[in-house]
Amino acid sequence: MRIRPMVPADAAAVAAIYNHYVLHTVVTFEEEAVAAGEMARRLGRVAVRYPWLVGETEGEVVGYAYADLFKNRSAYRFTAETTVYLRPDMTGKGNGRLLYAHLLSALEERGIVNAVAIIALPNPASIRLHERMGFRRAGRLVGVGRKFGRWLDVEYWQRALGRPSGGGVAG
Fold it and tell me: What is the pLDDT, as a whole number, of residue 33?
């Protein structure tokens, strides 16, 4: 799989990958399909500060990974929320790890020191991926989402990417 930055022309392929999960799973709490134009708008907003990568095989986008603002307060500026999605036929082959490795490296190059993933449950494949990528479970929120008539929990997972400089308190 070749990994490169996403460009607006990838928006339709990225939306198609994402919409599978929107319409058929609980791994995202979005409930309506996302149009290619909206995906391109999201790219434009995110790419100002964070990486958005796509993985392609034989010239076709088969997955993507990106980071975004964790919280909208300046003190959180060194922490990013991470996301990775693959076309369903591309899962279980190491593609998620490859995309994630590139994303985490790009974040570290930008001075991000913490990556946070928010995993909707149940999602054993995502938990395995995050464990393999060095993330650790950081907390669980119970019944915070409702989709397909079910109340759903989420878990926060965290990975340190670098070491904060300055007078922080270890915790």
Answer: 98
